[in-house]
Structures are given as structure tokens and as C-alpha cells.
Prior knowledge:
2 domains
Amino acid sequence: xMLIFALFFGGYPVYMETNQQDFAQKILQFILKxxxxxxxAHINADGDAIASMIAVHLLLKKLGKHSMMVxxxxxxxxxxxxxxxxxxxxxxxxxxxSNYTMDGNPVCNAIVLDVPGYDRLGDVQKILPAxxxxxxxxxxxxxxxxxxxxxxxxxxxxxxxxxxxxxxxSEIPVDRFLAEAIFTGIVYDTGRFSFSNTRARDFDIGAKMxxxxxxxxxxxxxIFFENSFSSLKTIGKGLASLEEYLNGQVNVIYLNLNxxxxxxxxxxxxxxxxxxxxxxGKVGLFIREVKKNxxxxxxxxxxxxxxxxxxxxxxxxxxxRAAGCRISGSKGEVIHLLIRExxxxx
Length: 346
Ligand SMILES: [Mn+2]
């Protein structure tokens, strides 16, 4: 299945893994044959999760299909409210599948995006149809097989970039709204085309989305360069808390319950990237207390340390260079546990 063919388009060699292309085509065929889709993504939905879900929703609409977007989260990241139909995303209300209908039709099929397993889907897993009606599109290392048709490409920068491959095969014209969704997912997960996961294809898709009407500065300002006053103050507190461990190989940013009050989760999450922005640092940790003696941890790596493995030791997960988990214990205990786990790889 790993056959790679070199094809030539317009004189430029384009390398395509044929099975990846088949997946995009197969998913399109499934979409065209069926209707009434539940769309969902991982808990604490980030820019790629929300944008790739909206992109599929807009694609389905153009193909004359019905869909509804349901997330586990009570609160959505408001920075993404410029995306078309952002306001149509609903929170799972624990009231049974019968309440989830589209124009009176119940959910028949589901497409889950940017989510590797049931745990990461949260309560929405309760309304998933049977596996032969579920499609998964994701770029995380897979945890559960949730559907009979799963497209997992760990080499893809983002789920949104994968969704674009399906959009392209559908041959529908890409309008500004769809372009903004695709562009947002890619820009978010590649840190503005700068992280090590960024591929040539991302620039290629990015260029097409700009031609379709995306204003890059509008989107990057919104996601990366604007914060609420209180979030920016909280980011300042986080930076002031920076501590180094293992001779500076690991840097830790810590916020307690009080520090965190009033800040926007999504905005403050930027502190995770600062934790690994120290020269010669290998791993960065952004730890915040979300309940008394209970911490949410974001891990970043710019070395060979696979932080997905570290997060997994605490029932979390993610990617090799960006992952997350939750750990019980005091600040000191949590840092001790994490450092011990990271040391195994240093
Ligand atoms: Mn993603």
C-alpha cells in the first residue's frame, strides 16, 4: 500500500501516494451516495478541528446534502467566529439521538474530523451511527477504529488540508467561505506555515485559497496577533513564570487557577508555543491548574523527544511535536511526573 508514483503535471513532478488519493475519492463517492450527516471533531476543538468540520459542512451544502455540526464542548473558540456557519455548531446536550435531526431527518451518517479515538470525541460518541456509516478524516496517530472508511494521513499538516483533497475531487467551485475554512485549518495547525509539519502542498493549497478570496492578514491577525486585554495580561503572567529543568532542556510555564481567571482558553494556549521558544530548549510544557490539584498540560517539542509518547503515559495524546494531557496532583508532583517521563527520551 505504500506504492509511490511520480506523476508529471505541467512539467513539475508531483509525488502522490496512491492510497491517499484513493481515500479522498472513496470518501467523495460515499458522500455523494448518502445524506444526513453528523459532523464532529475533538473535544476542546481547535482551529483545525472547527475549520475542517465547517469546510466539510460547506462542501456538503454545495453538493445538496444535509449536515449538522455537533461538538462536545460547551464553549467554542470565539476567535473563529468569522467562519461561515460558525454559529450553527451546536453543543452536545446529552438528550439522545432523536433530537438530532436535519429538516426532520435523523442522523444517518457521520464524518468525524481531526479526532483519533472515542475518548477524544467526548459525549458525541453517544450519537455516532454504526461503523459502516462513519467516516474518519484525521492526521493524528489513530487510537480507535471508529468507522469502516477511515483516512488517516499522519504526514498531513492538518485535517483541513485533507478535506481540500476531497473538495478538489468534487470539482465544486471554491468560494471565499469555503476557502477561509480550509485556509484557517492549515494556518492554525502549521503555525502560519512555519512548523515542521508544513508541506509544499500546504503552500499550494494556501495559494489557491488566496485566489479564491482569502485575505491572509485578516485570518492570521484574528488567530495569532489579537488577544483580549485580560488574555494578554495572563500571557504576561505565564511568561514571567518560566522555569527551566534538566539544564534548560525542558522549560515550564505554569498558571494556577487564579492566574487563569477571565482569560480566553484559546488565546492563552499560545503560551504552549512560548514554552518551547527558549533557545537550546528541547521540550516545552505549559501547565495550568483547571481544578484544585488537577492540571491540563500542553507539550511541545523541537527535538527528537516524542511528546505524544509522553502525553500517552498520562492517557493524553496528540502529535510527536505537540500533544496534551491532564494530570492530577500538586504543581510539584505534576512537574516531577512529566520530567521523569521526558527524561526517558533524553
Ligand atoms: Mn489538526
